[in-house]
Amino acid sequence: MRSQITSRLFRLGMSLALIAAATFICYALIPANATTAGFLFLVGILVIAATWGLIEALVASGTAMLCFSYFFLPPVGRFVIADPQNWVALFTFVATALIASHLSDRARKQAQEAKRRQQETERLYELSRVILLTGTAGHICFQVAQNLARIFECRAVAIYDPETATVSYGGREQLPGIEETLRQVSTGTAPSQDPACDVLIAGIAGSGRALGSLAMAGISLSENAMQALLKLVAIALEGVRTQQAATRAEAARQSEEFKSTLLDAIAHEFKTPLTSIKAASTSILLDVPDLSPQVRELTSIIDEEASRLNLLVTDAVRMSQMDASKIQLERQPVAVAEFVGRVLEDFRPRMDGRTLRVNLSQKLPRVAADPDLASMALRQVIDNGLKYSLPATAIEVAADASAGCVTIRVRDRGPGIPERERERIFERFYRRRLAKDRVPGSGLGLYIAREIIRAHGGDLWVESVLGFGSEFCMMLPTQREPLKP
Known about the structure:
Blueprint: H1 2-29, H2 34-51, H3 54-72, H4 84-134, H5 140-151, E1 156-161, E2 166-170, H6 178-187, E3 199-206, E4 209-217, H7 223-287, H8 293-323, E5 332-334, H9 336-347, E6 355-359, E7 367-369, H10 371-388, E8 394-402, E9 405-411, H11 445-455, E10 459-465, E11 469-477
Parallel strand pairs: 6-8
Antiparallel strand pairs: 1-2, 1-4, 3-4, 5-7, 8-9, 9-11, 10-11
């Protein structure tokens, strides 16, 4: 502020000195008439207006008017004008000086504005070029802050990144206490600062979401240039985050493929001893007639649990393949009553006192489905009902047909599901807080079941009433035309 006042006083002093010099030349060195002196004063005023501005030109105009009246209009040496024609000349001189000063000052400002806009455009172009060349190497916020300070010659730059909750700085100075303000601007709890302030603070937004906030000290930009700058910074941040997200997605995909391969290998290792156990238990039950009741019961348990464990291993491999997007549907016409019956038969030894009610019409149309995957989805739904249903209650399985689809309904008598959680239970690894400790599970069963059904072109949803149980509805499309071999 003090430097601006000093600069303005210096320009005013130089303006007065210039008028004084013109007066000395016209009056003392080369005695000139009033017309010549007036033109020389006008030239000096135009030079002052074009060089320093309107305020300096107005001060020079007033000084020139006094000098013109005192030294060149009769009676000379007095601030008195005797001839009316000289009054006309004086007012003409003043009007001409003022109009010329205004026009010259406006032309100077337009030239300065054009130069400033050109400089802003060049700097924005340089920033965009640097952003494109920078890519994703290093910390992007730090690089952008350093480049902003260099290209726009700012005293200080600070960029807040909400993802890491850190502030990156650029420039030769620091902005003490700016972190909290930037955090508030980024979250929308504080407004962006007026660009007229010495430290300009604004939010960075892209694709409808907040990406951070920016503070710049010692910079003067037009509103359009500032918006363009913020968009370039947003493009830089968004581009890096998009690429990072793609990298994480690729890493996740490779991890899923590795998990699928590992589970497949483990499954084959499990299947060999399971096959031997199953063959041995079956042979004992069929080929040894004189088994005691206790041994026969234990052998039957071994045989049933070996079959169940073999099924679980197969399902685990299929789940992993589904997550890794390797699963292939082998559609064929499937009779609903047959494949539902096979699934229910596997669950009868595990009912633990619950009753199983089945209401399936034999006239249901066939569905176009992969029988193994559809059975797996139904097993997950029934297994979920068994886990959450109360002891000594019934599990009901029904099916009905409508236009172009068959809906299989599995109803339990469990505690029910709150409305806010009815979609979340189909998310990967999601488990209800009230059931985490008392019900075993991984939170993948319903997710996999819905993915399988949706891959068939159907859907899986739940209808529930708190305190009265839940009904899971599995809709599969019917077979409309013969499948190609």
